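Subject — a protein and its fold

Tokens — whole-number codes for backbone shape
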Amino acid sequence: MDLDQIRQAIKKGNAAFGDGFHRGDAATVAALYTEDATLLPPNLDTIKGKQGIEAFWAGAMQMGIKEVVLSTVDLIGMGDFVCEIGKYQLTIQPQGQDAFEDNGKYLVIWKQEGGAWKLHIDIWNTSMPSQ
């Protein structure tokens, strides 16, 4: 397993994730996940599969998440999977309100699907208080 090569693939995937948010395109974001991916958002139920993941991210975009920056801190090879530990920065601007930022940590298990590295399990924390 060539972690340097995988790191570059994940860097491109993370950039595409941010670009999808910048354009308000939840389908682009969901396409970065495996078909049987699992999303573990804070304070919400587990979401499985691309359709549910796309709906989740579309809702996040409608709530005002405008920009996402993902930064890899560490990669750990795990057989057929790679674990990414990272930091995120969000710019959020609900309609009619001032923009603010949320920063936090995430952990993604990446898996190859169709020759590409894709998000397979995605979990993060948030500095924002739960509603």
